[in-house]
Design goal:
280 residues; globular; single chain; 13 helices
Length: 280
């Protein structure tokens, strides 16, 4: 098995381009007015799947643990990688925009720095899951038990978020728990696919590409025609992620100026946003 996959670096490069473009649409063009930015078709498309792509990639690059030990050590490393930058840069920005610590830490979005906190929380959940899965890894139905545990964790998070107003001051919003709920499926599906060596099987399968292309083209066409698509924020991002990784995987062994540029950016960016535990 390869020690590093180019298509994941390509995906990281694309993800950062999408986020930068989305921020340009929001802040440079619409002066931070979300309602105004939502009228832009490009912004709506970007915000629909850029963060699901980020979290899916984050799950893809986590090394599956054959033996879970020194969890406190691992969490300390993640704390330095994620929470220290979260507090350091978040508080600096808070100071420059004349906000208080409460203004920074209480809202769900954390003045834009929520991603680092949520990713740290995902690592906590992942190590809990990895520790539990060691207890039954030799069982005949270990895959089913894995899926059951992940489902229980997700349902528990949903229950904790029940009837929570994102505008109120509460511990759920302090932990950005609604964002944990929103992106949990992307992160942990990638974890499971990685654990059972299915990522390549999924994204090299031509049907994944064909179905994803068909769905995405249909969605864009309907949007251009002004036809509303029910609950598209819940299911369309899955096909966008599938399309992105299926296409980029086909450039895995192609070497040209385009792929070299993608690798150069992907290997040198997002080291904080997507800590790489090894691609093995």
């Amino acid at each position: 098995m390869k020690s590093r996959y180019n298509y994941l670096d390509y995906s990281k490069t694309l993800a950062i381009i999408l986020v930068v473009t989305g921020h340009l649409c929001l802040f440079a063009i619409n002066d931070g007015d979300v309602a105004s930015a939502d009228k832009m078709r490009l912004y709506r498309v970007l915000t629909m799947f850029q963060m699901p792509l980020f979290f899916f990639i984050s799950g893809c690059v986590i090394k599956s643990e054959n033996k879970v030990d020194n969890i406190s050590n691992k969490m300390y490393v993640k704390f330095r990688q994620l929470i220290v930058p979260f507090l350091f840069f978040g508080l600096i920005y808070t100071y420059f925009v004349n906000k208080t610590f409460i203004d920074f830490i209480s809202p769900v979005m954390k003045l834009g720095y929520w991603y680092l906190l949520v990713l740290f929380e995902f690592y906590i959940l992942y190590y809990l899951f990895a520790w539990l899965s060691q207890m039954y890894k030799k069982f005949q139905y270990s895959k089913i038990i894995d899926l059951l545990f992940v489902t229980i964790i997700y349902c528990s998070i949903r229950l904790l978020n029940k009837e929570v107003d994102i505008n109120q001051n509460c511990w759920q919003n302090t932990l950005s728990l609604i964002q944990v709920q929103r992106y949990f499926p992307y992160f942990f599906l990638a974890i499971l696919l990685r654990k059972y060596a299915m990522i390549e099987k999924v994204f090299t399968n031509r049907y994944t590409l064909y179905v994803s292309v068909s769905i995405c083209v249909t969605v864009v066409t309907l949007d251009l025609l002004g036809i509303d698509i029910p609950l598209k924020g819940y299911w369309v991002p899955w096909f966008c992620v599938g399309l992105t990784l299926s296409v980029l995987y086909r450039f895995e062994n192609i070497e040209n100026i385009f792929t070299k540029g993608m690798l150069f950016i992907g290997q040198r960016t997002l080291d904080t946003l997507i800590p790489q535990d090894d691609y093995k």
